[in-house]
Specification:
The complex is a heterodimer of chains A (about 300) and B (about 290). Chain A is of the alpha/beta class and about 300 residues long. Chain A is built from nine helices and ten strands. With about 290 residues, chain B is mainly alpha-helical. The chains are: A alpha/beta (about 300), B mainly alpha (about 290).
Chain lengths: ~300, ~290
């Protein structure tokens, strides 16, 4: 990425490895994360993960259940610290929560006791905006995601799709340069998921943050992303990286998946993902039925 | 079921039918409420009337167990003539002041400690066994110590009430903090919220559901604390009215005082429910309201 805006990084000794970032927004280098279980055993969630996401790039990560996809995101967000290796966001080593990073969770992360607009206004308020300013911005963002008229509703009064819209507004209002998404649409029904994916692409194309998008739905990953990373069964590590050369703007995600190139990519990536899914499935003590894992869609 | 058909073959007036269904449903509901209230009235008459009759027939000795008519008279006496140490209103005032102060101190202490220990694993592990032991002690006995140490004034009663309230609120606040959804905390942190923000916007409101549920029980405990404290030694208060009546073999006045206390507690319960409704208005209506209020 030659066009990568190399921000003037403040001189910090911890930034000795800054050059390694090479203009990439998100860089993971040899990152390992281990957790101690309550019984004192060590559990390795991810092992020696290295990946790069360029500015404005939409990167999807697919992998079987329990391969440490979510752990990778919490490390980039600064919610957890790597056991080994380094994580860089915007050229700086991540040591805590990073300004300029937003996170969209799989579960609803809206505060149920706050109205929708108060929820969305939290971002700017925590960054020092006045309440009035923050609410103004929140209303503007709610309009952009199509939730005008629902500002004073509480989250429980909205449908699942509407709550996702509100969560999207809350994540984008801080105008992040990095957007981390942990299976954000995983709990939605298929139709709502398609609508929300289109909405996400529309909003993403307006400000173009770098996206790290976790999913186990391969179709979703290919339809949305510029790059798909396949992770191995736990402990997770990067297995393959595929560039998705479908032209942008892609239009409706429901239509993209019928393009020949899409199917070709899906077939290729599934070949790589299939083994890992089988391995993860066997690890849980399940017998492997060979036919079961050869269908195209990774559910 | 024979449905009436008009000459064109359609069922007659479906709109009317729907109306009549709605009105029968309403009627049935009204009748149900009426039946419940009627049954309550019958039960009340049965209890009070039975009590009155059994004592009038000397099957049960009114000397020990009082008599509804005697209780009514004692109640009137309390309000008309007052007690040996001032009007009944001043007794109510003293007891309520002790209970309220104890309630406030206990609630504030319970919330502060509950939230602090709920968030700090270290503190929780250090304090854990002590709190378990303190909870196992029959705390009402502390009243004896407080009366000896702090005298017959209000201080000892406030303290006893506060101790009783503290544990109820503490355990609920502690549990409430533990039950906070990690996702919500992470979300606020990623959005740039500080520790204070996390506390204010996530932990406190989340724990509030639990804390408020405990307040119903806690208020009852604060009244018990004040009354028992007065019972153990006081110059004023409803507890003193009870212990004086007990010394005079006057069960009617004991029951009359109980009636007064019950009325006060019910009124307080009502106020707490109103506050609960206001503070928890964000909850979906399906959540069962104030189930912990028993």
């Amino acid at each position: 990425m030659a066009a990568a805006a190399s921000k003037a990084a403040p001189d910090r000794s911890a930034d000795a490895a800054h050059a390694d970032a090479g203009g990439d927004r998100i860089v993971l280098e040899g990152v390992t994360k281990r957790f101690a279980t309550p019984t004192g055993e060590m559990f390795t969630a991810i092992k020696d993960v290295s990946l790069r996401v360029a500015p404005g790039e939409f990167c999807a990560v697919v992998g079987p259940t329990g391969c440490g996809k979510s752990t990778t995101l919490t490390l980039v967000a600064g919610l957890e610290h790597p056991t080994a290796g380094s994580v860089y966001a915007d050229g700086h080593q991540v040591q805590g929560v990073v300004k300029g990073t937003s996170f969209m969770f799989q579960a609803d992360a809206l505060l149920p006791w706050k109205s929708v607009e108060a929820n969305v206004a939290m971002g700017p308020m925590f960054r020092g905006a006045s309440k009035k300013e923050a609410l103004g911005q929140a209303r503007d963002w709610l309009r952009r995601v199509g939730l005008s008229g629902f500002e004073s509703h509480h989250p429980h009064q909205l449908s699942g799709g509407m709550r996702k819209r509100a969560a999207m507004a809350a994540a984008l209002i801080n105008e992040p340069s990095i957007l981390l998404m942990d299976e954000p649409f995983g709990a939605l029904d298929v139709q709502t998921k398609a609508i929300m994916s289109n909405e996400l692409l529309r909003l993403w194309e307006q400000s173009r943050p770098s996206v790290l998008f976790i999913t186990h739905d391969l179709e979703e990953a290919i339809a949305l992303a510029d790059k798909v990373i396949v992770m191995t069964a736990g402990p997770g590590t990067v297995k393959d990286v595929y560039d998705i050369d479908l032209p942008r703007p892609r239009g409706a995600v429901q239509d993209v998946r019928f393009q020949p190139r899409f199917l070709e990519l899906q077939h290729q990536i599934w070949e790589s993902l299939k083994d890992e899914v089988q391995r993860a499935y066997a690890k849980q003590g399940n017998p492997i039925a060979p036919a079961a894992a050869t269908t195209g869609g990774a559910a | 079921m024979t449905s009436v058909l008009d000459p064109t073959g359609r069922p007659t007036a479906p709109a009317n039918d729907e109306l009549s269904i709605a009105s029968t449903a309403r009627q049935r509901n009204r009748r149900r409420i009426l039946r419940v209230n009627l049954a309550r009235l019958v039960l009340l008459v049965f209890i009070i009337g039975g009590w009155q009759l059994f004592t009038a027939w000397k099957i049960v000795d009114p000397f020990f167990f009082g008599q509804p008519s005697g209780i009514a008279k004692a109640l009137r006496d309390l309000f008309v003539h007052g007690t040996a140490y001032g009007s009944v209103w001043s007794q109510i005032g003293v007891t309520m002041k002790e209970a309220m102060l104890g309630f406030v101190y206990g609630v504030v202490g319970g919330i502060v400690f509950g939230i602090a220990l709920g968030q700090s694993r270290f503190l929780a592990e250090v304090a854990g066994p002590f709190i378990k032991v303190a909870n196992a002690i029959p705390r009402i006995v502390l009243g004896s110590i407080f009366v000896v140490a702090f005298g017959f004034g209000t201080t000892s009663k406030v303290l006893l009430a506060a101790v009783l309230v503290f544990f109820v609120v503490f355990f609920n606040a502690f549990q409430g903090v533990r039950e906070v959804d990690r996702n919500l905390i992470n979300n606020v942190r990623v959005l740039g919220g500080s520790r204070v923000d996390v506390n204010r916007h996530v932990i406190l409101p989340s724990a509030l559901t639990w804390i408020i549920a405990s307040l119903h029980v806690a208020f009852g405990f604060s009244v018990i604390g004040a009354i028992v404290g007065e019972f153990l030694g006081a110059q004023k208060g409803l507890g003193l009215v009870i212990s004086t009546a007990q010394n005079h073999f006057d069960p009617d006045t004991v029951f009359a005082t109980m009636v007064i206390i019950a009325a006060i507690t019910l009124a307080a319960e009502y106020v707490i429910s109103l506050g609960e409704h206001r503070l928890l208005s964000w909850r979906p209506p399906s959540a069962s309201e104030s189930t912990a209020g028993i």
